[in-house]
Structures are given as C-alpha cells and as structure tokens.
C-alpha cells in the first residue's frame, strides 16, 4: 500500500483545493459554469499497472512536464466521446465539422493546462515546493501507447485521481495521472507527512 489513510486524506484535500482554483480559472476563460471535484485518489507502483483501468481505451490526453523541487509528468485523460461532448458544449462545433479535431486538440490542451497547473501548482505551493510547467502536449491514443511514446518505465510511480467536472450542467469525467520517479515521489510524501504533523 503506497498511501496510508492519512496521506490519502491530505492529498485529496490538497488536490481538491487546487481543483477549486482550476474550476474558477476555467469558468472565467470559457465563460461557462464549471465545477471540479476529485472524489477518489490512489497510487500505483507502476504507471502501467492495470488498476488504472484505462490503458487500452482511446482517450484524448493533455500532457504537461513539470520540474523543480519535485519533477514528473502529468496527464489529463478524457475518453474521446466525452472530449467530443465537452468541445461541442464549449464551442458549438459538431464532431463532423471540418475543423473539429483541431478545435478539440486546442480545447483539451488548454483544459489540461489549466487543471494541471491549478491542481499540481496549488498543491506544490501549499507544500512549499517550487515547480515549473512545460507547455501542454496533446495526444489522441490509448494511455498504453502514450506511456510507450513517453518512455515511461515500470519503475516509476503514479498518483491517480478521478476528476469529475460539470460543464453547463453536463457531467463529464476524466482521470489525472501524475508520474514520478522514486525520489520525487518520496519528496512529495515527506512533504505531505510534514504537513500532517503541522496540523496536529
């Protein structure tokens, strides 16, 4: 078990605080009613662990690298039909429109950029860790293929968060997968444990 109950509780609180920030940013950018929440968080001893559940599903994926006191890669995964629905809701374009794929690519990339920056950035600030983000990258593949393309090894560790977002009263779902090497994961959990002690 990579996370104990207290660590899960603290991480869920940290990530949901960041989700609130990201939701407000999306609401402003999109001029739409948007709310985000993260009801479930877990950890896997390998990013390719089948417990993540979406390895072979086709998804639209926004990816960001981050580096600094903690480094890693963050992925926002949205099943393709849900990404189509989100794009249509926010732009009015239909999947059979000529420019729909490019519009969806830009939309998923920007949504990933805002959500990952909001959630991971807020968490790092609360843990007093300095990190910088790369621009977002987009892929429309299965996570399994993306892991291979990104050179992710079975020795790396992953945090998995289910993210629920409501856009204009439509419920959508995605997953955030954050991949760390062992040292970065240890630094993260040491900071989480230290925060827990300060709150006692």
Give the N-to-C terminal Cα separation. 23 Å
Structural class from helices and strands? alpha+beta
Largest β sheet strand count, sense and barrel closure: 7 strands, antiparallel
Q: Helix proportion of residues, in percent?
A: 40-55%
Tell me the number of strands: 7
Number of domains: 1
Shape: globular
Low-confidence stretches: none
Cα radius of gyration in angstroms:
16 Å
SS strand fraction: 25-35%
Label the CATH architecture.
Answer: 3-Layer(aba) Sandwich
* CATH homology group: CheC-like
Note the total helix count.
Answer: 5
What is the succession of H and E elements?
HEEEHHEEHEEH
- Looking at the structure, the CATH topology is Chemotaxis protein chec
* CATH class call: Alpha Beta
Q: State mean pLDDT (0 to 100 scale).
A: 84
Describe the overall structure.
The chain has 200 residues and is α+β, with helices and mostly antiparallel strands. The protein has one domain (5-198): Chemotaxis protein chec, CATH 3.40.1550. 44% of the residues lie in helices and 30% in strands. The protein has helices spanning 5-30, 80-91, 100-126, 143-149, 182-198, and strands at 34-44, 59-68, 72-79, 131-133, 137-141, 157-167, 170-180. Strands 1, 2, 3, 4, 5, 6 and 7 form a 7-stranded antiparallel beta sheet that branches. It is globular, with a radius of gyration of 16 Å. The model has no long low-confidence stretch (mean pLDDT 84).
């Amino acid at each position: 078990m990579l996370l104990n109950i207290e660590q899960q509780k603290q991480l869920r609180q940290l990530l949901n605080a960041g989700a609130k920030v990201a939701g407000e940013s999306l609401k402003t950018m999109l001029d739409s009613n948007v709310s985000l929440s993260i009801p479930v968080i877990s950890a896997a001893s390998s990013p390719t662990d089948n417990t993540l559940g979406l390895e072979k599903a086709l998804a639209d994926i926004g990816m960001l690298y981050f580096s600094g006191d903690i480094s890693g890669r963050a992925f926002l995964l949205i099943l393709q039909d849900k990404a189509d629905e989100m794009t249509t809701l926010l732009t009015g374009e239909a999947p059979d429109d000529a420019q729909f794929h490019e519009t969806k690519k830009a939309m998923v990339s920007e949504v990933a950029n805002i959500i990952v920056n909001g959630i991971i950035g807020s968490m790092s600030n609360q843990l007093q860790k300095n990190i910088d983000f790369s621009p977002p990258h987009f892929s429309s593949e299965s996570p399994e293929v993306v892991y291979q393309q990104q050179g992710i090894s079975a020795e790396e560790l992953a945090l998995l968060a289910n993210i629920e977002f409501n856009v204009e009263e439509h419920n959508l779902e995605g997953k955030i997968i954050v991949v760390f090497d062992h040292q970065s994961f240890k630094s993260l959990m040491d900071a989480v444990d230290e925060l827990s002690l300060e709150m006692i």
